[in-house]
Amino acid sequence: MAPHDVSCPRTPEEAWALDGHTRRDVVVVADRFAQFAREDRVFTLSGLLALLGSGGLVAPGCHWIVHFGQGVDAADADLLETACEKTEGSVRLADPAAFRRPSEPPVVVHKSRPENVLLAGVHSPAPAHCRAELRIHRDNELILDHHTGEHVQGIVIIEAMRQICIAQFETAIRSGLPPAAYAGVWQRIDLSFEDFLFPLPATVESLIVESDLGRETNLKFRATTSVRQQGRTVATAVIEYSMIAQGRVDTLERRKADQATRAYLG
After folding, report:
1. pLDDT tens readout for residues 210-259
2. Are strands 182-193 and 21-29 parallel, antiparallel or unpaired?
3. Beta strands, E only, 20-145
């Protein structure tokens, strides 16, 4: 299909009756992921808004259902919803609330800036099991300067796995500990990439398979983490890490920093 071909073909994969009309499902992603957008099933935000503004997006007798991909936030959803209202029901948002759900607060994943948070909807269906939606902001630090083609680069997957471990600690384990700040220190990551990750909805999970909580100032964990998208496993990792009281980390880091400086300068 050529770019901006807005016909509504009746194919088993793409169409089914909706109020007597034909339905076509499309995805909108941030302009940052323009290489992934084909403008037949996947549109950039600016591209879709332009088509909606042109007034000629949908052929007669066809309804478009717009699903949210990565990089689209609540403000974008408001713009799209306003534009969709002008189509008198010909274009609808699949789940307007989906991307109005905020990402986790930065403190939950030990980040400083909200655009660098990669998780939303963190919850623990079991004490040792944590799950979240992958949420990639269009201005995330890891995608600002990277030539990647259509897929999302692997460093985003690694950081999402790091964040789910931190979030699991902060939301499911931290409540039973003294009110002290903790820092994550990673000892080992055994990582396997099994498929490409694309800028579509995905989930991140962590299952703690071993832990040592005997010392409140140095809690040790081994967890199996994974990123999944549309039923397939994108990557898995076994991560060994410690959550160490911040004061202890500061002292250890200062001592080792002094040692490194002396070793360099003599």
Report:
1. 999 889 889 999 999 999 999 999 999 999 999 999 999 999 999 999 99
2. unpaired
3. 21-29, 42-44, 62-68, 91-93, 119-126, 129-134
